[in-house]
Amino acid sequence: MYKATQTRIQTYLNDVAGVRIVCAFIDDNRLDEQIRQAVLSLETKWTEKEIGFQVELEEVKYTANEGLFMHIWINLLDNAIKFSPSKGTITMFLKQEQDSVKFILEDEGPGIEDDVKSRIFDKFYQVDGSHKAEGNGLGLALVKRIVDSAGGTIKAENREYGGCRFVIELPKQKDEII
């Protein structure tokens, strides 16, 4: 049974990372609005923990698959909520730079241990055993594949004053579609 589930999940990941990103439901999107929708979709979780937000989102239009990009925002926010302490703060920035679009998400959780940083984007890897019942270890792997397919980069790092920071950089678009 485990092997069959693993095969189905691998097929799904391959489909998402391949042709379907280019072909399915591509449109102009406002990334700032997508991020706001992601925050609202997780309202039950962050209100339960009394988490506050510091948000600075510039208006950013980007041509991409809306559903796949929404997966990025929801997954990163869900993880930030999951690992944040009660009454913590999640900080988000979205800005258009000269050659790229940059999204930064910071939480006040425990951060990422150095020996784990190189593995958090691996399929089926879960950082914290206490949260294994809440996921399957595919979220960040899929986020990375989507970002990579868009020609972007994602990195995770610890903040010097505690917590974790995820930074996504997407290339400034010309006429190509992602």
UniProtKB/TrEMBL annotation:
SUPFAM superfamilies: ATPase domain of HSP90 chaperone/DNA topoisomerase II/histidine kinase. Keywords: ATP-binding, Kinase, Nucleotide-binding, Phosphoprotein, Transferase, Two-component regulatory system. InterPro entries: HATPase_C_sf, HATPase_dom, His_kinase_dom, Sensor_HK_Regulatory, Sig_transdc_His_kin-like_C. Residues 1-174 form the Histidine kinase domain. It catalyses: ATP + protein L-histidine = ADP + protein N-phospho-L-histidine. PANTHER family: HISTIDINE KINASE 1, TWO-COMPONENT HISTIDINE KINASE. This is histidine kinase. It comes from Faecalibacterium prausnitzii.
